[in-house]
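Extended Data, panel c. Modelled sequence:
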Amino acid sequence: MLDQRYLNILIPVDGSKEAELALDKAIAVTLRNGNNAHLHILHVIDTRAFQNVSSFDTSMVEEVSETAKKTLDSYVEKAKTAGITNVSYTIEYGSPKAIIAKEAPKAVNADLIMIGATGLNTVERILIGSVTEYVTRVADIDVLVVRTK
């Protein structure tokens, strides 16, 4: 029987309930994979969202970044409290689809992406496409979509 171990687990988060469920499961999977397993939490700030804001200035990006940092610090603390010693996070800027599916897994040498099921409704998925759907289609490594507690 094949003993599949994941040693570098990437968990993209966006503050949604779906992402928090995925984080909880990613913590459990990291713990099950032993002391050598590493949990890497990723948040991507979609810079395209700022292009449509007429009053855009750098303070907006700084404010969003600071909020993300506080949230990620709390996620790292949650993982450490659960018993994970190898945990880190990254804040990236750009297209979430490309960063989560291709760039971040290479950068952290991930062998598994755990991602929350989409929070989009049917119309939103048709118009802009789901990041989760894109990642499952394009990523070069295993992807686990978390749908339940």
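The radius of gyration is 15 Å. This feature is highlighted in the accompanying rendering.
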